[in-house]
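Handoff note, outgoing to incoming analyst
You'll be picking up this chain. Sequence as last confirmed:
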Amino acid sequence: MNTKQFQNAPVLSVAEMRQADADTIANGTPSVELMRRAAQGIFDAYDGWKGAKTLVICGSGNNGGDGYALAQILAGAGCDAEILRVSEKFSDDGRYYYEKCLALGIPAFAYDASFDVSGYGILVDCMLGTGFTGVPREPVAEVIRRVNGAKEKGAFVVSADINSGMNGDTGEAELAVKSDLTVSIGYLKHGLLQGRAQELIGRLVNVEIGIELKGLEV
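Most recent structure output, in case you need it:
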């Protein structure tokens, strides 16, 4: 991973990013619109979607919501996309986009131990966000291991905002997704540039979605 391109870029803590999100929403940008922009940014950051079968793996929070919004965008672009849910829970915005995916007929599966991720050319990691700390619990831990195994066999792995299992402030991880591409949303977080980031992230890009930095010194 080449980090020289980010030498002069703002880098935020997880708490600062949450504050910036909240301020932007309070100032009139709906959270559901920010989620759509995040998903569009992920889509635009990679040019290999078409011609490959994509599995978008979604967790319970807004990171999963980015995944549902991405699946909708992929379907609208004529790409072959399916959804794997690793949690029964949704954020409010995540449920909004999940229901749109179902209305479009995008196949969606709940994870069980027999689910095979090896038949997909692209795996999109939208399980755990930047606020995660500690060690991933099952079934997410098993899915992370399977994603990493599929990557070793040639699947292309995209992580949304941060690799699931990484600490957004420190970059440390006991078990985390290894990505070919990680698409940071809004602003870079410290954990994307330190700790195990060099080992876990193949290429890092940041996409701007209109997050305001008023009142933050970064």
